[in-house]
Design a protein that fits this description.
Layout (H helix, E strand, L loop, with lengths): L10 H11 L3 E2 L1 E6 L5 E6 L2 E6 L2 E8 L7 H9 L1 E6 L5 H6 L18 E2 L8 E2 L4 E13 L2 E13 L4 E2 L2 E2 L1 H4 L3 E2 L5 E2 L12
Antiparallel strand pairs: 1-13, 2-3, 2-6, 4-5, 5-10, 6-9, 7-8, 9-10, 11-12, 13-14
Length: 197
């Protein structure tokens, strides 16, 4: 087995080991609004559930050349953002929003997404996602140049086509996950294992 000391490697070398090993990663498509009203949109694969009581999710936003990315800056300034689950039907549009644009341009202009008003916050979501979470910023954890955003879900939106009796059918949601490099993955074979009692 190979052994690597992260202190003796570059950030990129550590990054490649992490994103190549921790797979698949769910993708959050996040819309935020700047203090002057401009909408920002970007995908993040450092994304997960934090808590169900209260419902909270996390998104880790790295800096770019020492400067906070627009998503983190906007969430901190306004306290609101919308997170969408990326699926097979919207992944190509979401990928367009990964473009590096100046803060005065909106990545949504690169897509064909249509906006829909939120119910509990002022930031809109997009119609083309089967699941979206309206979030209020609960906490920011600064970890070096990275900001871990913890958002409290204040409204769930779930497409009726994937929902039944309180559950979401993953085979109908068709979520997409990130691997390393430019690679993505669809759901593969699903199997069940009973938990010990």
């Amino acid at each position: 087995m190979l052994s690597f000391d992260p202190k003796e490697q570059t950030e990129r070398e550590n990054y490649k080991l992490l994103i190549g090993s921790i797979v698949p990663r769910p993708i959050a498509f996040v819309i935020s609004r700047s203090a002057n009203g401009l909408l920002n949109a970007a995908p993040f694969s450092y994304f997960n559930v934090v808590s169900s009581d209260p419902p909270m999710i996390s998104i880790s936003v790295q800096s770019r050349a020492g400067t906070p990315k627009d998503t983190a800056q906007n969430a901190i300034e306004t306290g609101e953002f919308v997170v969408h689950v990326v699926d097979e039907s919207n992944v190509e549009q979401v990928n367009r929003t990964a473009a590096s644009l100046p803060p005065d341009e909106s990545e949504l202009d690169l897509t064909d997404f249509t906006l829909t008003e939120s119910e509990a916050i002022t930031v809109p979501g997009v119609n083309e996602a089967k699941v979206r979470f309206e979030c209020r910023l609960e906490q920011v954890v600064e970890l070096g140049g990275t900001r871990l955003l913890i958002g409290k879900v204040v409204r769930f939106h779930v497409d009726e086509s994937i929902y039944e009796n309180g559950r979401i059918h993953h085979e109908l949601l068709k979520p997409v996950s990130r691997l390393a490099g430019t690679n993505y993955a669809k759901l593969g074979e699903v199997f069940s294992i009973d938990r010990p009692k």
